[in-house]
Write a structure and sequence with these properties.
Elements lengths: L25 E5 L22 E8 L2 E6 L10 H12 L11 H6 L1
Antiparallel strand pairs: 1-2, 2-3
Length: 108
């Protein structure tokens, strides 16, 4: 789900967005466990985001549900969150490919 993402990618968090306490599913992305959550703008109560999940995927039958706590298409449609959205769309019945074999797999 997070293929191609940097581990330090910031998350846009706005009014109406969610941070999850997860008891099921697989956490794809979460907020840092401690420290200052704010990187730009303003945030009240950022400490309540510490360690919470922002993206979770759930296997349901033969399908997959991906929940986004924030809007991946928010405003500028930056490259990093768009990777998450497209990975969720195309996740389906994917085939695992070793990173070393990837250039050959892409050439067909």
């Amino acid at each position: 789900m997070a293929w191609g993402m940097r581990p330090d990618t910031p998350v846009w968090f706005g009014e109406g967005d969610q941070a999850y306490n997860v008891t099921g599913g697989e956490v794809v992305s979460s907020f840092p466990k401690s420290g200052e959550q704010l990187q730009s703008g303003w945030l009240i109560g950022g400490e309540h985001l510490n360690g919470k999940a922002s993206i979770v995927k759930h296997q349901v039958g033969e399908g997959l549900i991906v929940t986004f706590g924030s809007e991946p298409t928010f405003r500028t449609w930056s490259r990093d969150p768009s990777k998450l959205l497209f990975n969720a769309i195309y996740h389906g019945s994917s085939t695992t490919v070793d990173a070393a074999a990837l250039p050959g797999a892409l050439r067909g």
